[in-house]
Every structure is written in C-alpha cells, then in structure tokens.
Amino acid sequence: MGGKVEPLPPGGKKAVKVKALAAADAARQKDAARAAERAKQREQLERQKAERIKQKEMQKIKAEEERKQQQRELEEARKRKEEEATQRRRALEAAEKREREEKARRLEELRAKRRLEDQRRKEAEAKQHADEERKRKAAKLVEQQEVEHKRARVQEKQQSAAAQPAVAVQNLVHSTVAAAASSAAGSAPTASVLAAVSALEAKARLQPAGSSFNAAMESRADSGKGPSTSSGPPPFPTAAAMSKALGARPLPGLAAAASKPLVAAAATPTTQLVPPGTQSYEISPYKSDEGSESEEEDEEPSKPVPEWARGRQLLAQLVSQLAVDPDEIFQQHAKTCSLDEVFGSLERERPGKKDLSRRTSSSNWIEDRVTWKEEMNYKKAMGYL
C-alpha cells in the first residue's frame, strides 16, 4: 500500500493529481487491505479447522488404539482365566483321582481284612463243629452203652420175675370169685367185687410178657375149650368166665370197667398248642365305610398310593434297605458340577458383568466336598464295611 510506486505518464510529464482520483485510490487501497485481511482470517480459520479435524482424527485413532488395547487386555484376561480354570479342573481331577485310588486301596484293605476274618471265623467254626461232633459221638456212645447196660439189667429182672410162681395171685382170684358167687346167690355182684376183679385183671396185665403166667393165660384163651390138662396152677379167670360162674348173668360194669381206659383215651380231644402272644382280629376291607367316603374325598390324594409305599410294607422296605450301600447302586455318581462350565458362557455373553465363579477367596471347591475319610467313617458306622 505505502511502498507502491506508480509509473510515469508517457512523454515524461508529471501527472496532475486530482483530489477525486486520490480519494478513489485511497478507497481501493482500503478495499484491498480489507480483502487481504479477510483472506488472512479465512486462511487462519481454515488452518484452525484443519487442526481441529486433525485433532479429532488423532483422538479417534487414539480411542481406537485404546479400544484395541482394552480388547487385547480382555482377551489376555480371558485366556488367563481359562488357563486358571483349566489348572483348577486338572487339580480337581488329580485330587479326585488320588481320592479314588486311596478309597479303592482302603476298600481293598478292608475287604482283605474281612476275608481273612471270615476265613479265621470259618476255621474256628469248623474246629468247634468238629469238637462238638466228636463230643456228641462220645456222648452217644456212652449213652448207648448205658442203654445196653440198663436193657441187660431189665432183662435179668424180667427173667428173675418170670421164674417166680404166680400161685398167690391165682389163689386170691379164685377165692374172690368163690366168695362173690356164694354171697351173690341170685343177686347182682357188689361194686367191691367188681373193683377187686378189675384190679386183679390190671395186675395180671402188668406181668412180663415172657413169664409162664402170661403164657398159661394165652394158651387158655387160645384153646377156649375145657379145662387145661397141665399140672400147673389154674389160669387167671377172665371177666366172661367170672360172670358165668356168678349165675350166668353178665356183671354190670365189668366190661365197661375193662374197656374204660380205651374209651377215655379215644374220647379225649387233641389240644392245639397256640403260641403265646398271638392276636387274631378281622381286618376290615379297603374303603368299606360308605358313610365316610364323602368326608374323605377332600383329603385323599388324586393319585392313589401303592400298597408297598404305605404302613408296614413301607417300613419293611425301609428296613430291608438299611443294609444296602448306596455306592453299590449309584456307582458312577457326580460329586459336584463344574462351575467354570456353568458360568463360562455367561461371562462370554456378558463380559461386563461380575465373575460369578469366584464366590470364595480361593475358588477351591475341593474343600467343600466330603472327603474319603468321612465316607469310610459313614460306611463303618452304617455297617457296610
């Protein structure tokens, strides 16, 4: 503006300055200055805009880098977590394996100990049984010898008793019959006579079978005709012979007295032995009370309960299951679930949520489970081992 030099007019003459031209020139110079100022301001604004755009791009790039860094950190954290979960799972599997091996070893030791005890008990029982059998045979031999001695003594007594004559008994019978015949004289015999005859008959029956007295009676009964020609004492008279001698009238009560023991024995009823403490009662049928059905409809379940799950049947089932080891039925039972597998999908779906698997300070789930020692103590207490 101030340093611009205008060219000289042609001819070398100095231009005549006019006041209006000077004013126009000054106005043009001001417009040029304002235009230059506006261009400068516009350039400055564009430069500031470019800087702001660049800063935004830099911030965007920085945010992207930070996001990628966070993703890398999350991925590394996830990998570390998976590695820790894998290590915990391996540690748990190793602990379970050691526990199973220890439990199997203890069970094998207990089974071997039990087999040894059973073998010793069987040997002791066999030895005791052999001793008892030997003692029983010895006692049986002694008893047989005693029976043989008693039988020999009884035979000796029978032989000595058979050798003695039965004359006194026969004379007493004949004298009694004669007295009864002479005193009766047409009347019925008295009860004393009948009792005496019955007593004598019973005494005669009790004589030894091998004696000469019974042999004479049997020969007399078999013959049934005429007197005997033997020189011995007269035979023992029977009830029929006595009644015939007493006037050919039957003795009332004599035959009944002779057969009375047999009739009494036949008439005696056999008694049934009932064990003490038994109770007999009538069981009412199921749902027999018609009046109470309407009252019990509300209380009865919709599904009927089977017979084996009620009352004594259920008690019998429970008692029968006391000696059954649950491990023999459920051999492959899971002791606990893997919490890493349960909560792993939730953590991947919701990465911003809290880690639910770390619910304890150590995340050691083995400490919360039942140990093999506790299982062995339980088996011993229940009688499974």
Automatic annotation (TrEMBL):
It is found in: Cytoplasm, Cytoskeleton, Spindle; Nucleus. Residues 292-343 form the Inner centromere protein ARK-binding domain. GO terms for cellular component: nucleus; spindle. Transmembrane segments: none annotated. GO terms for biological process: chromosome segregation. Belongs to the INCENP family. This is Inner centromere protein ARK-binding domain-containing protein. It comes from [Myrmecia] bisecta. The lineage of its organism: Eukaryota, Viridiplantae, Chlorophyta, core chlorophytes, Trebouxiophyceae.
